[in-house]
Amino acid sequence: MENLMRLIPPIHELMEDPTVLDLQKQLNMSNSMIKSSLQEATTYIRNQIRDQQATFEDSGDIKQVIMSRAEHTLLDYLKPNLMPVINGTGTVLHTNLGRARLAESAIEQMVKVAKQYSTLEYDVESGKRGSRNKIVEQYIKDVTGAEAAIVVNNNAASVYMVLSAFSKGHEAIVSRGELVEIGGSFRISSIMEESGTRLREIGTTNKTHLYDFQQAINEETNMIMKVHTSNFHMIGFTQSVPRHDLVSLAHDHHLIYYEDLGSGMIYDLSQHGIGHEPLVKDVIESGADLVSFSGDKLLGGPQVGIIAGKKKWIDQLKKHQLARVLRVDKMTYAALEETLKLLIQEKHQSIPTIRDILVSQDELKSRVQAFMQRVPHYIKSSLVTDETKLISKVGGGTLPEIELPSYGIRMSSQAISAEKISEQLRRMDPVIIVRVEQNDVIMDFRTISQEEEDLVLNHLIELSNSF
């Protein structure tokens, strides 16, 4: 063991090796990064020798392994951590995969704004400083019917900002059945606590009545808050108070009525028989003072939180210190502006989220059948592939009870388990994320674009050849 340890070249010698110098030039990496990767590689070799997990013929053999490992470390370091993937799960708004895919026009506008200077906070007419709030406010007003609006970096930030600005040190009344937990263990009750708002829980998990709200109002109350339970669906012996009754109660007592909608549906999916999610416009029309919702859910845009409502309250939010803390950047505004314009122009099919939710099972079946005709026969023998009916989900904490009839392919192999197939697909470039059900790999074409089909086919060929 000690003899092998002595064969490990010193770092300064490795740093001067022509192979390492060529690698450094190729990758344009600093001396410190090269040195760090070589140190990590030599430490690995020492541990391998010490634990008797590796043997080497000579110093040249050790040197080659060190440089190979160092090169791999550097290449892995330079590889993007945020990568595009092909979503074969069928979940349209997959939170772990970035939720909404943006429309082409939104992407193009983001690139333009990123490449050049922009009018983020510049008024062209006056030649003076402008306000970023004006970039999308009119469009939000047009699609929601609100008097005013402001944009922050996500909907949890919307909730936090509204509560901090208007209910800090006061009580906000919320039904127990609406104290939801959103992704990542973030709870409405916790956000309220952080904002300095005192939560007044009323009713029970399954039933809340108007008199519960009436009895809870006292001199410390300044808000009635309704939270849309968009990430779960409760059925059975349930009851909630209609929105118009809560609005009337709040205004009779000079309280703010605030509703957190979460999913933010602007385009009415219920006209296609998909769910009964409340429209933002309907909530505004009911007399709500403030409404907040996400931009990257059913709206189909970038991650933002949108707060819309009465000008009196929105103007106060614009002047609040959190407005700067929670503001969004120029590229986010560019994507949001284009998405809102598509909604205003009724180009709903240009928004991938809406398009993918609305696509029919028959349309997907035609695509899958055409795709299967292109799959070589030898793949079908080594990697059994069959077209199949599937069920998709909207996802993203929206429409939890809705199942979308879908279509895709089912794969299995005698040579390798479904989990291993899934793992190999995750190691390809680009990565394909699939579902595994009863030792079958499921690839749902609802969330695979037509442009991605060639990549999927190439991956299946590569996968089959690896058996």
Automatic annotation (TrEMBL):
Keywords associated with the record: Cytoplasm, Protein biosynthesis, Pyridoxal phosphate, Selenium, Transferase
GO biological process, one term: conversion of seryl-tRNAsec to selenocys-tRNAsec
Enzyme class, broadest EC rank: transferase
UniProt entry tagged with the keyword Iron: no
Superkingdom as given in the UniProt entry: Bacteria
HAMAP family registered for this protein in UniProt: SelA
Full protein name: L-seryl-tRNA(Sec) selenium transferase
Organism: Tenuibacillus multivorans
Gene responsible for this protein: selA
